[in-house]
Amino acid sequence: MFGELIKLPPAERCRSLYQIVDGLHPLLIRLRHMPKPVVAIVQGAAAGFGLSLVLASDLALAAEDAIFASGYVHLGTSPDGGLTATLGRAVGLKHAAELMMLGDRFDAQRAFQLGIVNRLVPPAALEGEAMALATRMAHGPTHAYARTKALLQATLGDAFDAQLRRETESFAACAAGEEFVEGVRAFLEKRPANFAGLSLP
Global pTM? Predict the structure, then answer.
């Protein structure tokens, strides 16, 4: 998808990516506001928007061999998916800045230590563990869960929804620039990006 978008003129690329990113936000808002707990399971990689989904969940289990990354910086853009609102709350602002600005991959153990996931599970046991947790919660006090989730989410107020709008504007503005084009080309060509000397949007 990004490979086609970098062929567009900057203003059109900016508009297109604004619509794409903005179109993903109703899912995140629904996850946040639905009265039932959301349990994420991570098998393989949770990168970019996948990491945002993990952080939008109420609980998260990960396979011990799972890999995580923000990764947006490698594409020459800022994060989306509410990551700038949720990651700092989960791990603290210094760790969030490191994970987003450097974009390095990190393993499941670090995700657990940082508080991104609740439990690490052997890969072969992940599905069974997730079903056991979901079954336990389904038989629990669902009304109390709903109220607890609402109270936890209320601590964000409307900041999450507002941050989604700011992220969309920032992502689209970054996408209009040469850094985004270089980042996408480097990703598609499986090489490190060279952002030196590129002009601002």
Answer: 0.90
